[in-house]
């Protein structure tokens, strides 16, 4: 295949001193229909998949080699001019772009992607909406990743392109990210992204995470510590180094000017920059060296700057489990409280088909009738009795043989279990055994969310103190540490066990 490649090249430098000075960035065309690609009135956008390349058997008979980093716009412009081009692989270290002409229908190219840490694969996708976005690419796509945050909107049985259309066209909220499960056709849209909730970003085979480049405000990088919603970010500055993994190269007379150019860059969200002092050049990147694990290059008169947000934000939520406007039926999870029943009398009978599997049938029937059933009690040998509102904690009374189930609305995705937490009223672990303690968590459900989203350790149980709004997270359970598990005379403490946590 290599002998058929037509190479457009200039001599690639072996050291930074031979980088040519660029005085004007290449021009790119706005997104729009292209006669060779998107038929029936479709519009083309680009997806960027960092860390991957398309297999060599899919390379077209052309390659572009540059003499300086930051060639994404040039590569995209060349692909735009070729009606047969379906996308390109950019190698940030070799400073090359390989152009492809493959069938991208039904996401066929995804199966032929191979890992390539120094590369990124850019693919054209056809959509039916006009976005008005002038970014070089519309979405960053991260393979086999998911996002355990509250999905503001969920669509089932749709294509990836339709999912992207929904995110780009959303007007009711800012869709910053989405996930797409290619096996179920499940599309979830989010107000948050992985930088706002880093602990919610996880490995997940079969699901891809997409970050909307058209949604974000500029990612400002200040000279020192700065704040963001829910946490603090550190600015890391590396003197004598630069990152060659750059998407744009632009002139700059000083590091301060380079910082400013990064802050106002409109081609993509700039997350790091390198100022090359000798060449008076500024390299802007949509990623950080920390994020992609790429080594920095040495140069005495250069400086590299990135922003790292390491602190996990405390989620304080006022979501009510009885707010039918907040959760769809698919968005509710179940919480189980053993050995209690409700002393209120406004209740209905949930029919179960048989005594075998009664819990599953009662949960299914409760979900089916939606807001009519917000909670139910299952009694030994009897039908399940449902309630149209969650039962106040003070109205739950001891009843051996009874189990109380309540719908809870959580912004974190569960694990497919029938219920997500087991709740024991009036029990606790000592606070000094907690791995993490969050203050000012306004609801019990907010504490449950924090446990599900915890990324530093496996949160297996929680204790919520209502009077203090205190949420304690533990890596242990009453089974692994029975000696420290205790009943308490405090009337405002609940212990809850995470059913989604793996076995210790």
TrEMBL record:
<dbReference type="Pfam" id="PF00024">
    <property type="entry name" value="PAN_1"/>
</dbReference>
<feature type="domain" description="Apple">
    <location>
        <begin position="38"/>
        <end position="126"/>
    </location>
</feature>
<feature type="domain" description="Apple">
    <location>
        <begin position="233"/>
        <end position="309"/>
    </location>
</feature>
<dbReference type="InterPro" id="IPR003609">
    <property type="entry name" value="Pan_app"/>
</dbReference>
<dbReference type="Pfam" id="PF14295">
    <property type="entry name" value="PAN_4"/>
</dbReference>
<dbReference type="GO" id="GO:0009653">
    <property type="term" value="P:anatomical structure morphogenesis"/>
</dbReference>
<feature type="domain" description="Apple">
    <location>
        <begin position="133"/>
        <end position="214"/>
    </location>
</feature>
<feature type="domain" description="Apple">
    <location>
        <begin position="415"/>
        <end position="500"/>
    </location>
</feature>
<protein>
    <recommendedName>
        <fullName>Apple domain-containing protein</fullName>
    </recommendedName>
</protein>
<dbReference type="InterPro" id="IPR052774">
    <property type="entry name" value="Celegans_DevNeuronal_Protein"/>
</dbReference>
